[in-house]
Fold each of these.
Amino acid sequence: MTRYLIAGAAGMLGQDLQRALAGRDVTALGRADLDVTDRDAVLAAVAGHDVVINASAYTRVDDAETHEDEAYAINATGVENLAVAAHEHGAKLVTVSTDYVFDGFGTSPYSEGAPRDPINAYGRTKAAGEELALAAHPDGTYVVRTAWLYGAGGANFAKTMVKLAGSHETVSVVADQLGQPTWTGDLAAQIVALLDADAPAGIYHGTNAGQASWYEFAKAVFSRAGLNPDRVTPTDSSQFVRPAPRPAYSVLGHEAWRAAGLEPMREWQDALADAARHGVLEQHDNPESGR
């Protein structure tokens, strides 16, 4: 029987990974259970497992601008530790990465092989994590890049929109950043499908299909939550200046799935409808969340 280890299991994606692997032999470790920056602890934790799924990450994008060393320890060194341990123990490693490894200046979907060129500290640390993991365990590392995650088990944009609707007549959302809203339920299922298919190691883009601006996503969230979408108004990113620059274009291509004989993830609108039916837009936040 395949034995799975989930690092970062208490986060939003980690919770859905546990659901997707229900009935299997799973060790689920949250931040309090496993410090991925401690190589000895990681080596001990990975022993006896066949698959390691890394859903742990430093995801405070703006804070990373002034705490890049801390972010690097988790997003780069921690990922390398997991890769070294997986290699030593003969396990596969799936590590979850991000669209932020790209510059965001593109106009067509980024391919899995497009050069990394991050524009902020968070992106630099995640890009380093990819490179270190692939170097340490090239034949057994799966990098799954995702973006714009929302789910039941943590704070996220979709649930924030619903919450704001309770206290604001209108909500202003940027319309000049494009990406792919992605339900953690779908991403977890896709990661399990990737492993079950014994697909080739390498880079995959784990985002729901299609594209939307944050404004379009917010309007869709309002609709699915039974709210009037006309309460969402468009603005541009110049009105929301933050410490870390954001990619303007974060649409990812999905050719690696097809090359491996797997179907890419479904359209984001279909995923959101399904997520809403599963109560994802309801307010029951877990403070330990992230990707």
Amino acid sequence: MWGAEGKGVRGGEERWAVPEGAPRLRASPAFDRSCLLDENTFTENFMNRLRPRKTYLCYKVEILDGDARVPLDEKKGFVRNKGANEPGMPRHAECYFLDRIRSWNLDRGLHYRLTCFISWTPCHSCAQELATFLGENSHVSLHIFASRIYRRPGYEAGILTLRAAGAQIAIMTSKEFQHCWENFVDHQERPFRPWVGLEVESQHQCNELQAILQTQAN
């Protein structure tokens, strides 16, 4: 059981040439729009001016071969946390994400890039779990784009732990918000429209993140 998560996503929107030796990929089946994030869910959880209680994590997986990237459409989707008011034990989105990655048994002979777009940066505990996974799986790299910083006890140490483990961490800008809109949202062909204050808040969050990362550099 995966817990609270999306059932699937649309596929086939980004294509690169398949590098020699990479596994052949089947064409993605027709997608069901009901399996995408609806517009309100996306806005309520990723709008960086808001402070939602939930955490959503959208992810995609690519095989790397030099400068080429091969998207694995069947390994693309989203998960969310399970709150205290829901059946079962509360659990963070990152834990569901790690469960899913481990279930794939990714080929250690290939190099994979995992890219996450998350509404909050990982807490200290989840950051440690992600760092441990990276330490055990050198064939996997992790890139995290966060809408906002999760300011709870130990959050700075968690971010530094992730960076030390090799994860790349950045704050989402309009470019990443648009990418999520186009790939993980049932937008009904409507274009992404940046909200008022997006870039100002993004820059504020970015400055804070850089200040945290600078402590590691020093």
Amino acid sequence: MTKFLFSLATAFLSISIFAQQQKISFETSEGYNLGTVVGQKEWTVKTDNVPNNNFKVVTGKATDGNNSVEVTSTNDYTGNMTYLFKKIPEYNRLSVSADVKLEKLNSSEYYMLSLYYNNNGNYSWAGGFNFLISGKFYADSDVNFLDLGNWIPDRWYNLRIEIDHVIEKNVKYYLDNQLVHTSALSDKVLRANDLNFEFDNDGSGFIIDNIIIKDMDQLAVNDINKTQISIFPNPSYDFINIKSDAEIKSIKIYDIKGSLIKSDNLSKIDISALPKGNYIISIETRSGIETKKFIKN
């Protein structure tokens, strides 16, 4: 719990000129070599019968730069899905995107950009894009799914998933930069920390490139156009004042676990009844929503 509290506080208090973002396009400049990606930069596989050499960094098949990862089928169907995956940071508000291209219809089925909470080997699924052998595909999770129509083989798709673990507690699915579905987040997913690309090896493979992992809280902190908002006194034991250069529409206070404690729309808020500890305050103005932290003495 101490480690969790420290990580949460760091996410809200760290201020940097640059947005916190990781880009993976499998380039030599990023430290990748041609050949199997397994073992490079913590990429690994879980499979019944697909050799590591079928997961290759290749050149000339990319959407960004020169390189990408191509996964080829051995045509030996696996009853259990084959996973290419790596661990990702446990952000409170996470965005992950990737370009993917699937080889052909009527062959393999795929789960692309699948995000999981891996708790010491116990997995809970946050969501992903499910491409079926029939040509149908879905924004999918253990909570619900949405039919997105039919997918086209040998076509690049940009997939993006945004997960808010703290405030909205939902999952947003974007297809080619268009929001296509919003779902509740399973209460089993405490923090998405595992990125997977999956298929059943039934005669076709896929290519992935241009993976971008973002800490959306850090992006919000570094947005120079955001409304100027201050909270004082901080720490406080009775009242906090909210100063904003834009009209405040709503204020919500959450405890450190993300549970909503109090809603208001006033610039002076009575916190005297709150237990001592750390709190998160979400302030909505015309410019959007800004999240800050305060301490109740």
Amino acid sequence: MAVCEVCNNDYDMTFEIHAAGAVHVFDSFECAAQRMAPVCDNCRCRILGHGLQSDGQFFCCAHCAREQGHAQLVDHV
């Protein structure tokens, strides 16, 4: 069994995510998102979809990007 790096649950169905040369171990997608998903630089929510990026900042949507002065970013609908 392996231990989740977020909640420390010792669980027989953990899984690994390999990213940027590191290996991460989680027991749920919730824990994986908590550790791996970027955070919106405006509203602070976890970005679980595509999100937007500008000048090194991450945003969950175009509204949040505009709130931070990035009017050129648009959502794709």
